[in-house]
Each structure stands twice: as structure tokens, then as C-alpha cells.
Amino acid sequence: MDCIFCGIADGSIPATTVFSDDQVVAFRDIHPVAKTHILIVPRRHMTSIADATSPADELLLGHLLFVAKDLAASAGLDHGYRLVINTGAEGGQTVGHLHLHLIGGRSMHWPPG
Ligand code: DGP
Fold first, then answer.
1. pTM for this prediction
2. pLDDT in tens, 36-88
3. Ligand 1 centre distance from Cα of residue 94 (Å)
4. Is the CB of 4 under 6 A from ligand 1?
5. Within a 13 Å sphere around the CA of 96, how many CA atoms are in the beta-carbon half?
């Protein structure tokens, strides 16, 4: 399958990796929108969160969130940060492999664009 984030997860596509374990890989976004902008992705290909169906998927989604909050703490984002999962065309998803954005280092606004 031709998937950029599968390539990053298996090491065949270079990225600035900040964390990895047997389930997930976290790396810096190529187009950062804030001082800290990290993507946390499952190693196993899932097109979007809409593909999560099983109890194992539920655990995996929890793990993504736990990794994100630990990375936020490591990055010193003590004043806050934003976690985003864009889903589908109207959600603004441009890469078809589930990913969680960790964005921090500046004030955020609401509603998002
Ligand atoms: P989204 O719009 O939620 O699908 O976000 C996709 C993000 O992925 C976007 O912020 C840019 C980032 N991205 C796309 N291609 C690459 C890549 O090859 N390497 C890295 N590090 N990030 C990428």
C-alpha cells in the first residue's frame, strides 16, 4: 500500500521521530503550525478514526492519547496544548492514515477554521 505514514512507521521514509514503541510512532509535522507540532500515528494502517471498530482499536486510541499527553509534558507545554484528529474530507484530513496532532507553544483560537 502506498501510504506516507506507513513508510515513516517502517523507517523507509525519513522523519524526525520523537517517540516510538511497538504500537505507535510520533514524529514532527513537516508543515508545523506552532512551535511544537507532532503527529502520533498507529503503526498498523487505519485510514481514519472511523475505521476503529474492535476492543483492540479502543485500547490503541487510548494509547495514542496517553503518548500525546506524555509528549506534551516532555515538551514543557505546561500552559496547554491542542490535540486534533482531522477525519475525512470535511474534517480536513489530507493523509489517509489515522494521526493525532499535538500542537502547542502558542495560544489557540476557537472555533477552528
Ligand atoms: P491532516 O490534514 O490532519 O491529514 O494532517 C496531515 C499532516 O501531515 C499535515 O500537517 C502535514 C503532515 N505531513 C504530510 N506529509 C508528511 C510527511 O511526509 N512527513 C511529515 N513529517 N509530515 C507530513
1. 0.98
2. 999 999 999 999 999 999 999 999 999 999 999 999 999 999 999 999 999 99
3. 7
4. yes
5. 5
